[in-house]
Amino acid sequence: MKVDPATLHRLKAQAVSFQEFLKDWLQPSNLANLRPKLEFQTGVLAGFALIASVLLGVTNCSTESTIQLRLDEDLVKSLEEVIPADLHDNDMLKDTVTIPSTEFNIGANETTVYIAKKSGNVTAVSYKFTAPDGYSGAINMIMGIDRDGNIIGVRVLSHKETPGLGDKIEVTKSNWILNFVGRSLENLTPAQWAVKKDGGEFDQFSGATITPRKSVQAINRGLQLFKANQAQLINP
Amino acid sequence: MFLSETYRKIAADGIWNNNIVFGQNLALCPLLAVTGTATNGLGMGLATLVVITASNGLISLIRHLIPNEIRIPIFVLLIATLVTLVDIIMNAWAHELYKVLGLFIALIVTNCALLGRAEAFASKQPVKESLWDGLMMGIGFTIVLVALGAAREISATGTLFANASLLLGESFRFLEVTVIPNYKGFLLMALPPGGFIMLAFLIVGKRLIDQKIAQLKAVTATPTTIPTLATEE
Q1: How confident is the model at residue B130 (pLDDT cuts 50, 70, 90)?
Q2: Among A64, A174, B140, B185, which is disulfide-ready with B15 (CB 3.0 to 4.6 Å)?
Q3: Could you tell me the CA-to-CA distances from A224 to A78, A144, A219, B179 in Å, in that order?
Q4: Which of A156, A95, A149 has the alpha carbon at shortest distance from A131?
Q5: Chain A closest CA to B220's CA: distance in Å?
């Protein structure tokens, strides 16, 4: 673009005079006179609100996709915990089925099931589920199940249980959660799907019974969700 | 010393005399909530340190613009915006750190110490002094958080700086030590009441040290103060 030298000169002069004006205006003495005025106060508050919203909006827009990417990476990591790499050769994030899950009381009305496939055949499925009634809030978990309904692995993703007692459900604190590997609705009776205190198969922790009890019950309900939809999930 | 008198006084105030917790009794909500372990305390301390320094600097920079009548809403708006920005940016570009610190960053909004420093210091002082004050207040707060976290962690589980490698990286694994082997655990200290109890002990400790210092000062100062008093009369 060609700019007329005269226009350029005029623009420059304008910029300089604006700079001068701003400098004078921003003098502490000038601002001290302005501050008690209602118009100035309204303007300042509105100005700051505007700047804050623009900053937040711009930051949110420019980071949204990056954050989604990071969350996907987290999800892949959790899926890898419960589905071994040799069981699938597909991108499980793209191979999903959404099934209604209200009646199973696992925290969500719809559950997204990630399907693991090897050379086109379904080998396992995985989904997140929640024990909504933990000792101090929801316990979020993820589970991998093979096509016959046996558990491949369960992990706790997040929880607010008592540190030092209920947090033994985490695999980094105790290997309790590994006891579920190989269990299914078929090889344990409904009565055995409980902590030992309730006559079942699974240990409770000394000093914490509610956390493992509710976890066992939620895992059981999670398996029932699979059983109810087994035909649809393993023969897509 | 390479620091001038003003800066030395700000540092002493921030770290000891007017410490956020010991001196001003502020910020108890985030303090008691996260100090179950020393590592969590350190994480919260570092996050607060960054935000309080930034908010002090920013508020000092625009202090001539802010009318007295609407200063509080503006401070709250600025601090909340700053915290949210840090939260979003860390989630995107320092995601591993965010997974450990994310909980604490949102909690900083509830930290009245930031508003306290904006009101008491940054809105009246030049930018450099305000930044320095924020930094020193942040360091003072971090020291209390780590001390309280360490005391609670040792008495509750017998370990110190558990999971520090998650926060600071693998090279800091040496920090994770078991202070009392085969410790049966004392759950109360990990729960909120333990926080109050341990904080009380720490505050008593600080007062005792202050008393001792005052006594020592009085003893050394006695010979010089008496003649000056006499001349004044």
Answers
A1: very high
A2: B140
A3: 21, 13, 9, 45
A4: A156
A5: 46
Of B2 and A144, which is predicted with more confidence? A144
pLDDT exceeds cutoff 70 at B32: yes
Rounded mean pLDDT, A61-72: 93
Contact A45 B185 (CB under 8 A): no
Q: Which of A31, A69, A70, A206 to mutate to test the interface with B (most CBs of B within 10 A)?
A: A70
Q: Is the CB of A163 less than 8 angstroms away from the CB of B190?
A: yes
Work out the mean pLDDT of chain B and round it to a whole number.
Answer: 86
ipTM over 0.85: no
**Nearest in space to B132 (alpha carbons), one of B9, B1, B45:** B9
Asked if B81 lies within 8 A of A52 by C-beta distance, the reply is yes
Q: How far does the CA of residue A36 sit from the closest CA of chain B (Å)?
A: 7
Residues from chain B contacting residue A26 (CB–CB below 8 Å):
64
Q: End-to-end CA distance of chain B: give it in Å, rounded.
A: 36
Distance of residue B218 Cα from the nearest chain A Cα, in angstroms: 44
pLDDT band at B174 (very low <50, low <70, confident <90, very high): confident
Distances, alpha carbon A233 to alpha carbons A84, A117, A142, A180, B175, in Å: 19, 11, 17, 21, 47
The first and second tokens of residue A182, run together, are 């190989």
Using CA coordinates, name the residue in chain A closest to B80. A52
- pTM of the model as a whole: 0.78
Residue A129 DSSP SS3: strand
Q: Does the beta-carbon distance from B92 to A55 stay under 8 Å?
A: no
**Left (φ > 0), alpha (ψ -120 to 50) or beta: where does A124 sit?**
beta
Contact yes or no for A216/A193 (Cβ under 8 A): yes
Question: Residues B30, B108: contact at Cβ < 8 Å?
Answer: yes
- Asked if A28's CB is within 8 angstroms of B85's CB, the reply is no
- Which residues in chain A have Cβ-Cβ distances shorter than 8 Å to B92? 63, 66-67, 70
Which residues on chain B are in Cβ contact (under 8 Å) with A28?
64
pLDDT score for B231: 42
The pLDDT of residue A1: 64
pLDDT for the residue B2: 63
In the block, tokens 């459900």 appear at A169
Q: What is the pLDDT of residue B229?
A: 45
